[in-house]
Design brief:
The chain contains 9 helices and 6 strands, in the order E-H-H-H-H-H-E-H-E-H-H-E-H-E-E. By secondary structure, it is an alpha/beta fold. The protein has a 6-stranded parallel sheet with strand order 3-2-1-4-5-6.
Length: 223
């Protein structure tokens, strides 16, 4: 990494190291299956839309709750609104499976290990600690530090989670590299604090001015 004065590297987790897909779009299929058991399958679209509206309210609010608490609350309120008996145990299993089972991207493990031979490597990620740690242990990742949204009591792109990570690292922001798949949640807030940042642009989308991008994690050492 001779081009950047790096002393530590931070990664986002879901969508960057682990291929979680689009769970908040895929959840519609789970709702359809659930509503079929309640003989309300024609309700899927409205139920999904109501759930998403409730989730948007949570995300725009000031009070932090964990991801699992938020999803369960949105599900509960949707069930109450449409007078459908909930199945909290089944929904909890969906949450656990969604956030612990997805496999790492093919370039993730080797890239993290290679970088960790020279630099401290950690996570700055929106995740519940229990689910995140289960996924990390399942896949065999090793990190020098982890700053989750649950630990910081806020979600990216709020700056507080990045500041908490920097305080733990005790390294100047300009010497810390943030790597993530979201410009809004990873790159821009990191840059605003003076950190280096790389956008993981696997799909080869147009890159905005002022943003450094890579298509694979394996490109990081050559930057």
């Amino acid at each position: 990494m001779s081009g950047l004065q790096v002393k530590a590297v931070c990664f986002d987790y879901y969508g960057t190291l682990v291929d979680i897909g689009r769970p908040f779009e895929d959840i519609r299929a789970w709702f359809e299956s659930f509503l079929e058991t309640r003989k309300r399958v024609g309700l899927t679209k409205a139920f999904h839309q109501y759930f998403n509206r409730r989730r948007a309210v949570h995300l725009s609010g000031d009070n932090f709750i964990t991801g699992e608490e938020m999803l369960t609350d949105c599900y509960s309120k949707a069930c109450a609104h449409f007078r459908v008996e909930p199945d909290f145990m089944r929904f909890s299993r969906w949450i656990e499976d969604t956030f612990t089972s997805p496999a790492p991207f093919t370039d993730a493990m080797k890239s993290v290990c290679d970088i960790n031979r020279r630099y401290p490597v950690g996570l700055i990620t929106n995740a519940d600690d229990k689910l995140l740690n289960t996924s990390i242990n399942r896949h065999g990742f090793r990190f020098d530090f982890i700053m989750s949204s649950e630990a910081a009591r806020c979600n990216k792109p709020e700056l507080a989670i990045f500041k908490s990570a920097l305080e733990r690292l005790r390294i100047s922001p300009q010497n810390v590299l943030m790597v993530g798949d979201s410009i809004k949640e990873d790159v821009l807030p990191a840059q605003s604090l003076g950190m280096q940042a790389l956008w993981l642009n696997r799909d080869g989308k147009d890159c905005p001015p002022g943003i450094m991008s890579i298509k694979s994690l394996s490109e990081i050492p050559g930057v």
